[in-house]
Write the structure tokens for this entry.
Amino acid sequence: MHIRILGSAAGGGFPQWNCGCRNCSELRAGSLQATTRTQTQLAFSPDGQVWFLLGASPDLRSQIIATAQLAPPPGDTTGSPIAGVFLTSADVDSVMGLLHLREFQSFFIFATPAVQRLLKNENRVFDVLHRADPPVLWQTLSPGARLACRFGEDPSAPPSFVCSPTSLGCDFPDFVSTELRRTLPSSEAVLALRFEQAGKSFCFAPCLSENSGEGMKAAASSNVAFLDGTFWSDDELIQTGRGQKTAREMGHLPLSGRDGLLAQFPKDSECRKILVHINNTNPILDESSDERRAAREAGFEIAYDGMEVTL
Ligand SMILES: [Zn+2]
């Protein structure tokens, strides 16, 4: 499997347009040892030809343009190597990019029934995806159920890969009304997605909360795990003057501390751990920081745009 990290920052990217935190200010001034990052987006290919997107970030158009493997093959006037999009949630940062894919192209969208309802029935702007002929094809992801994906028409052929979704115990996005929220199963709000092919696997879990034990296990049992690197400390937004909520109140386990992700991730796991969805306030973005060194010493890599992993 080929995996490419098209974007590695949290919502807002790095630097963020309206942020004057130390990281963003010094990056703009050229005095920070760090690189710019677009919003978190992965792409993977089971065979090097057909590609699937994990999430649909607000930066998706420029991320696709910057990636040669995702361009239509020369001479193909209607095609794209992108066959589908797997959605982990209905968060704006995970779905906004679908609007970049609206140019009369048919593809698969994999999402839980609750996320499908939010996008199809509650946000009519996504109707633009149905103008394609044939229209986009929605496929259901159910937490706990394995989904075998096959290329071609033969249903008895072995699957090209298997996707196993796990509920991360997180909440629906803020834009979902209390009334509507009551009718949606919370297990369908945010998923970790584990992909398996020929005995190799990777897991995408860009949002891990205190309730994400099952997702953490799914990640730990994979060869490679892309994990929630949003915040270094619980009070990071308060300390940097960027907000009033703690990391935990926003549904993210911070990286540091005795009960943070670095300490909590199963120690017996042999998986390669790569942090994604890194907020612009996070000190690990500074390549000379103590925090970055601590994360590396704990065995965690820090993702960057354009990073490639082959399994
Ligand atoms: Zn900032």
In short: The chain has a mean pLDDT of 95. Residues 15-16, 19, 21, 23-24, 280-281 surround zinc ion (CB under 6 Å). The first strand starts at residue 2 and ends at 7. Residues 22-29 form the longest helix (8 residues).
